[in-house]
Fold this protein.
Amino acid sequence: MKAVTVVGASLAGLYAARALRAQGFDGRLTVVGDETRLPYDRPPLSKEFLTAPAPEDAGAAEDAGAAEDRLALTDPGELAALDADWLLGTRATALDPRHRTVRLDTGRTLTTDGVVLATGAAPRRLPGPAPAGSYTLRTLDDARALRAELTGGPGRVVVIGGGFLGAEAASSCAALGHRVTVVEAAPVPLARQLGPDMAALCAGLPADHGVTLLTGTGVRGVRATRGRVTAANWPAPPTPPPPPDPGQPPRRHPRSTAKGRPRDASSECQRMPPTCPGPRPSSAAASPARARITASTASGSSGVRKGRT
């Protein structure tokens, strides 16, 4: 191969470029990225970078610049050694395998012998325009804007998503003095990554830091007043059925089995998909959070919504 194009200029794209050169590829190497910055470290964006003071004077601005410099994953010496053409602030819009080309949003077309797709993940966004006070945490620019908002005084914050990034963002918001609610669609956050037992244990940690965790529910949207977010909306928890009357026979499902015997409605509900009416199973960690839904007011890679008190 004489030319390779790497689509994605973050950590994976950088490692792909390093691996190509390390394995002896000496042809034309092009790295395409939609951000205007060279690869930088993202995990600190939801932790120490987010809780650092916002630059308000020359000294603080200098410190902030140094903190951003520490996020860099490469240096001028390595960049020279890689000898790659970095097309930053540019998005790849189409791939034509037959003609071996990559089309860019600038209108330019790259001819290439190989393509590495290293675009990473994109955060899910709520439908509609995002009002002021609504943030997605994915890039350095996102973290800058969110940090400026969070350091402006205590308020109420809802973080949409209870995964690793959401948990880190919630912890940072709580450390800055905000009242934080985390809304997670899964019954227990991080169950797939950690396993049910460890995930259930970790689900109890936010409460130790004053963070309210709402599980088993999604966010429908946000409300705004004068263009600024004031609340996030999620479905109310299902109303549990009343306890059975001991003097009444058990309620029967209107349909019958193949043998003609009526089905008990509660046992039928356990076999049907989650859309079946009736209470959903919940974990011990999730139940207290659901009980606080009506009393709670309000994450990117986590979505973060903030309202002033």
